[in-house]
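pinned: reference chain
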Amino acid sequence: MTTPEIGDGHVVAYLKAHPDFFAVHPELLASISVPHPHGGRTISLHERQLEVLREKNRALEAKLAELIRIGQENEAIADRLQKYTRQLLLTAEPDRLPAVVAEGLRSIFSVPMVALRLWGVREAWRDLPVAAPVEVDAITLANSMKTPYCGPNAEFQAASWLPDGGATARSLALMPLRKGVDPHAFGMLVLGSADPSRFQMNMGTAFLDRIAEITSAALARVVD
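pinned: its structure tokens
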């Protein structure tokens, strides 16, 4: 009578069903050798288990380092948002707000190019540069936007508000300004950079949303 051949699957199934097997037969651990994962020599099963644990620890350490880095970056951005918000809250004169917005974005967030336009400005502040006439296309675009736009400068009309008419801006962030949940925008904030990778289409917009909300709340004082 031929003895049935025992395959790898049978061995694996048996060891899974008897997890205490090597505890009952510890002498086997010292006699089993396996190939080293990074070389031709053989090592004991104990050494192989230690190597597996080391590899897992290295992977976990790398993930932890990445999480710490992301946390530190988010904390730094949150600190900048707080500083920016504080500057706006401390600005008592409404006519100074547009300049405080632009300077805050340049200095606190290191944005090289900033432009701002408002429409429906109250009569007392209609002489401000930000109240200059705005093309209908730009207003229509702002009203249609649900989230900020990030990406290349695709010859948006709003890009012409930037220094040099936006000629040197390779990437943009466009943020509509609204009062709360009002679907109609009362302005547009434009950020530009000569670096084409500064504002990318696949980047998250959560912090840009916060900047737009904070800026909208501050500038709501100067519009009808």
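why pinned: The chain has two domains: 29-78, 91-222. The chain has a mean pLDDT of 88.
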